[in-house]
Structure formats: structure tokens, C-alpha cells
Amino acid sequence: MGAALVDIATVTGWRTSDVCNFRYSCINWETGIATIIVAKQTKAAEARATRKGIEIVRQQRKDTARLAGDHIAYMHWDSVSCDELAAGMTDEEQAIVFELVAKAEVKHDTKQLPPGIIKRLRERQERNLVDDDLVFSRSQIESNRCQSLEGSVTRQTIWKKLHGVMTWFTHFVNNKLRLSAYSARKIAAFNMMRRGGEQGLLIASEMLGHSNPAVTRTYLQLGSQAGELQAEMAMEVMA
Hints:
Blueprint: H1 2-12, H2 16-20, E1 27-28, E2 33-37, H3 39-67, H4 71-79, H5 82-87, H6 91-102, E3 108-112, H7 115-127, H8 155-172, H9 183-195, H10 200-208, H11 213-219, H12 225-238
């Protein structure tokens, strides 16, 4: 299970949590193209929509207080926290928030899977004892307790399976690397950057969904480009 998940993450650059929730229905078996919902960005859009809805309700209550000449109520609704305001909403006010959340943008991401991974996924699907559509279902874990549970595996479960391999790699191959469940995503980004040539960092940034290549540079722990250039220039002067 762990190897298959890491292979998919390394090829696609998807977050571990998104791969954990990967479903067979996301795959076009003829083309090998897979499309997922990106949980982190979708949840962020829903959170923004929730905040917008709460602020609309806040403004409505402030307007009502202002029209009634109730300055104390106006000041109260102006300063009350979002959590407090949300806790005391009427059904009509909740409907405003729910409607905005329902309209929040769902972030999708599409990637091409290699034929080898498609073949392994077909074989994996045929071996499934539970038809829950999840590629990495908790029911597939070699544990009597887990086999009775619903839902996908977690990032922590995958890390437990990979921890021994990562520890061995750190001790015997490269003790400077700090590998984790997120390493596959970083490997995918680094490979994309290398293949992209001069535009590699920009392409990797686009793949990861970063707003700025500088964020990607920090994420990949590449150091400061300005610092590297300054060091090269200094050495040229010394020469």
C-alpha cells in the first residue's frame, strides 16, 4: 500500500492526504488521466465563503441596530467574534452562509498516470474485498480492527509503513536528508523543475499551486538564488 501511494504522489505531486483519498472513479482507464479534488485549496475556498457569509450577517445586524437607533447593539455586533456570531445565527442567516459555501470553487487537479501504475491499480481494484471506491481504503490494512472501519487511510498510517525505509535511507544513504510523508511531493516538484530547464522553477511552482516561485524555492529548500549569484560574483572578483 505504502509503495503504491508514494509512486502516485511522486508522479503527480499531489499531497499525501489527497492521494490517501484517491478513488477509482477519479481515473479514466482508457487514457490513464486522473482528476481529483484538491482538499486543501477547496477547504480554503469554503472557509473564505463562510467568513464572507458571517460578515454579511454581521452587517445586516449592524444595519438593523443603526436603523433602530440602538448604539449599544451596533457596537456589540461590530465587535463580536465570528465564532460567537455564527453560534447564534437564525435559520435564515445560516442559509446565507450555506449558500455561499455551496457556491465556493472546488479546486480540481488533473494528472497523467503512467501505464505501469494504471496496471497496478487495475489489479488492486480486482483484489478489493470492499467496494467503497477508495484506492487506499482502511479496510485493506492488515489489521482486524482496521478492516472493519470505513474511509481512507491517513497520512499517519502511510508514514508508519514507510518509517523503517526512511530511517534506513537516512542512516546508510544520505544522513542530511529529512524524509517524511511529504517527501514524494517534493521529489515530484524537483523532477519537474529539472525537466523544465530555465523555466523549471516556474513550472514546478505551477504544478504545486504556489502563488510565487520564491515559495517553491523555499519549499524545496534550494536556498536563496540571489545569495548564490552573489557568491559566484564574489569568487569572480577574487579571481
